[in-house]
Amino acid sequence: MAELNKLTIAEARDAMRKGDLTSAELTEACLTEIEGAGALGAFVHNTPDLAREQAKAADARIKAGDAPDMCGIPLGIKDLFCTKGVASQAGSRILEGFVPEYESTVSQNLLDNGAVMLGKLNMDEFAMGSSNETSVYGNAVNPWKVDDRKLTPGGSSGGSASAVAADLCLAATGTDTGGSIRQPAAFTGITGIKPTYGRCSRWGVVAFASSLDQAGPMTKSVRDAAIMLEAMCGHDMKDSTSADLPVPNFEAMLTGDIKGKKIGIPKEYRMDGMPDEIEALWAKGADMLRDAGAEMVDISLPHTKYALPAYYVIAPAEASSNLARYDGVRYGHRAKLGQGDGINEMYEKTRAEGFGDEVQRRVMVGTYVLSAGFYDAYYNRARKVRALIKKDFDDVFAQGIDAILTPATPSAAFGLGEMENADPVKMYLNDVFTVTVNLAGLPGISVPAGLDAQGLPLGLQLIGRPWEEGDLLNIAHEVEARAGFVAKPQKWW
Amino acid sequence: MSIDIETARKVAHLARIKVEDDRLPELAENFNAILGFIEQLNEVDVEGVEPMTSVTPMRLKRREDVVTDGNMPEKVLSNAPDAREGFFAVPKVVE
């Protein structure tokens, strides 16, 4: 079997069960790839010894029979997940040297299923960014390239996207607060699903905006997303918002039959100045679903326009509260203090040194919108608008819509550094199609569906009903099958 | 609403982030760009709308009010920048 690192989860699982492949071989192939891929900046803390140990245990388990699907599968874990005994920094200087004494529930679930951890993956600092340029580790780089420019893999799960697209691992974990799984998946030609809010436990995942954050898998295929998502989710007493619902066998729900499904096409997602290519891809997606027997229905989600502004009140507000814990007392960085400096100077210097510009900006915006006199005007108003955005979705689902088709991003990947001097709001527009889904707590998936004129991948997004990830994956599987996206980046790293 | 340099200074202090004076004008400008964007929310009619508190309509789980873990001071302190005699150490707070 050549180039083991290029296998999908499903292929590797089947080969390991047949005895054609061991996890040790597969893990070694990935470790070798990672070693040669420093230029991608994807892996930031490597755990080769741990990986070899886990692979050995997985092989024993497979040999004994009855091993779970994820057993022996080598994964990358986003740096946002706390991993016991392994550095977990959320891409921030303020968590330099932090080594958790505990394991996040999601990564523990994966380990319990026998998965192998190859290391931790680059990301925007505290998951705040759409280009992976705010990381303390430096940029993650997109393996896709069309000229001399280095392109962003998207963000915040940029390291995860880059690693999966470049076949450094079979799949990776991501997290998504406003599009941080789906946008990088689209920019790198891979699949990424954000499940319904509450499907994956948030325990042990460094918090950004708790009412929006969800973990999910980033994979090479929809089938892999189904397999890995099932292993990640489940009820957890340690997260009070975790849903106490049975987790279905998502892979078994990939029936290939979507006849009669009603797919909504929301007119508000047809933005002014949308590139023709995005428009064409969207229309192609609708044709593919129609060919598969689904019915396209024009729908309206009237408050779409207000999703980004509402998000940029709610997310910073929650972040300012969540990030108050980084005070230089219990973990991470503490600034060197001058003569006569008291506890306030310690907080202020520590946070100024430890947080990067974008994180500082968002914490301060959050502080402002929550401050006395502005709470009602900004924060409460944004929460009301959020209720209206959710109602838009509730209404179309009540009309019998099964899923909604939209573009995943307003463009293909852009060059690293190209947005440096733009005002911060420009960068925020990257999430225009994805952020509504977080505000409404819905499942959303990005599937690679084509290349733009330059030859860069573009994704389509499908949005599902709450808790119906299985149905959503089944529809996405049809888009994947019909789009026939097989392009891979040419190796330059 | 326009944020001036004094407001930017006040917000930075509330957020406990030290911002040097020469960086305040740029920060105020960033705030104004972001808040200008947020202002769009004023166009929405929110009359009679309840602010969202939970995105999925679920009752929070309850459990017995009992101690479920503890007795691990070494683990709790293991990442502290300064820990002494089983406590987190900070600069003097009370004179």
From TrEMBL, chain A:
The keyword Protein biosynthesis applies. It comes from Aliiroseovarius zhejiangensis. InterPro entries: Amidase, Amidase_CS, Amidase_dom, AS_sf, GatA. Keywords: ATP-binding, Ligase, Nucleotide-binding, Protein biosynthesis. It holds the Pfam family Amidase. PANTHER family: GLUTAMYL-TRNA(GLN) AMIDOTRANSFERASE SUBUNIT A (PTHR11895:SF151), TRANSAMIDASE (PTHR11895). This is Glutamyl-tRNA(Gln) amidotransferase subunit A. Allows the formation of correctly charged Gln-tRNA(Gln) through the transamidation of misacylated Glu-tRNA(Gln) in organisms which lack glutaminyl-tRNA synthetase. The reaction takes place in the presence of glutamine and ATP through an activated gamma-phospho-Glu-tRNA(Gln). NCBIfam families: gatA (TIGR00132). Heterotrimer of A, B and C subunits. It catalyses: L-glutamyl-tRNA(Gln) + L-glutamine + ATP + H2O = L-glutaminyl-tRNA(Gln) + L-glutamate + ADP + phosphate + H(+). Its EC number is 6.3.5.7. Belongs to the amidase family. GatA subfamily. The keyword Transit peptide does not apply. The gene is gatA. Residues 25-473 form the Amidase domain. The active site is at 78 (charge relay system), 156 (charge relay system), 180 (acyl-ester intermediate).
UniProtKB/TrEMBL annotation, chain B:
Pfam families: GatC (PF02686). Its EC number is 6.3.5.-. The keyword Protein biosynthesis applies. It is an enzyme of class 6 (ligase). Coiled coil: none annotated. The keyword Ribosomal protein does not apply. InterPro entries: Asp/Glu-ADT_sf_sub_c (IPR036113), GatC (IPR003837). Keywords: ATP-binding, Ligase, Nucleotide-binding, Protein biosynthesis. It comes from the Bacteria. Allows the formation of correctly charged Asn-tRNA(Asn) or Gln-tRNA(Gln) through the transamidation of misacylated Asp-tRNA(Asn) or Glu-tRNA(Gln) in organisms which lack either or both of asparaginyl-tRNA or glutaminyl-tRNA synthetases. The reaction takes place in the presence of glutamine and ATP through an activated phospho-Asp-tRNA(Asn) or phospho-Glu-tRNA(Gln). Heterotrimer of A, B and C subunits. Belongs to the GatC family. HAMAP family: GatC. This is Aspartyl/glutamyl-tRNA(Asn/Gln) amidotransferase subunit C. It comes from Aliiroseovarius zhejiangensis. The lineage of its organism: Bacteria, Pseudomonadati, Pseudomonadota, Alphaproteobacteria, Rhodobacterales.
